[in-house]
Amino acid sequence: MTVTGKREGWLSFQELYTAAEDKHTCVRTKSTDPMTIYFTSGTTGSPKMTEHSHCSYGLGLTMNGSYRFKSLRQCSSGGEPFNPQVMEQWKVKTGLDIYEGYGQTETVLVCGTFKGMEIKPGSMGKASPSYDVQIVDADGNTLLPNQEGDIGIRIAPQRPFYLFTQYTGDPEKTASSQRGDFYLTGDRATRDEDGYFWFVGRSDDVISSSGYRIGPFEIESALLEHPAVVESAVVSSPDPIRGEVVKAFVVLSPTYTGHDQEALTKELQEHVKKVTAPYKYPRKIEFVEELPKTVSGKIRRNELRNKEWGKA
């Protein structure tokens, strides 16, 4: 359905609104009946239609109203993990902390840094009381602290009512999102001894190079610590020896655009080695004017990865 304009094969909200009757007859519904269909942001491909029930939708309602920046008392973030540097700069400018959280169109809030909790910059916080969140392996077994795995929400013996019901019109995708007793979010993370979750990357985004698994977020965060880098996106790139290597697409600060790119590439590579680990540095760096993003501002890493692997 289009809100403005027209598109072949789509319904027009304005035409339906104009043709609607003045009186509306309410229909009795159950909490499990479909209520609304959200679209995912499309960071991994085409947006998926995600169905939520009346119960789930009602619990996720938010109030829309006016706002005044100077009256701001608390800040929260979601959608993409913040780099610690951004959180530090925000704290300096506003005097306020940012409470990070993690969720999806399918799940609403999965975990977060709730009021009264210690803030660990870069962490997604702890599991929401609504969910039993675990880090699981390929067989659906729960992993120990600090072991990397898939983020799983327990759906057995009872499916949480916050969770979406299905991907509309795509039963195969719905089935593939489940492993044993868990719904898999498609993201990988670790959980520390205190119960805080740490984002590694989308399952498709994690790079396997010479047997090492490398999350793009850590490399992007390291690059952003360098004054030359305004934005970065890290993806896998084919390599005949290592299978895959880390490649970084970098948007430079205006003060660095005239620098020698070969020398700057080596400087950034050495910087990442020092901040993370020698095997994680980007063996390839491409300087670009901008990064491809979704309408909601998320980096489309799949587009960059497909370009590298000849799928664009």
TrEMBL record:
Ranges of residues in domain AMP-binding enzyme C-terminal: 218-298
Catalytic reaction list: a medium-chain fatty acid + ATP + CoA = a medium-chain fatty acyl-CoA + AMP + diphosphate
GO CC field: mitochondrial matrix
Gene Ontology molecular function terms on file: ATP binding; fatty-acyl-CoA synthase activity; medium-chain fatty acid-CoA ligase activity
Keywords: ATP-binding, Fatty acid metabolism, Ligase, Lipid metabolism, Nucleotide-binding
Superkingdom of the source species: Eukaryota
Keyword Ion transport: no
Pfam family, one: AMP-binding
Record-level GO BP terms: acyl-CoA metabolic process; fatty acid biosynthetic process
InterPro entries: AMP-bd_C (IPR025110), AMP-bd_C_sf (IPR045851), AMP-binding_CS (IPR020845), AMP-dep_synth/lig_dom (IPR000873), ANL_N_sf (IPR042099), Mitochondrial_ACSM (IPR051087)
SUPFAM superfamilies hit by this protein: Acetyl-CoA synthetase-like
Lipid metabolism as UniProt keyword: yes
Start and end residues of each AMP-dependent synthetase/ligase domain: 67-154
Top-tier EC class: ligase
EC number: 6.2.1.2
Family label: Belongs to the ATP-dependent AMP-binding enzyme family.
Protein name: medium-chain acyl-CoA ligase
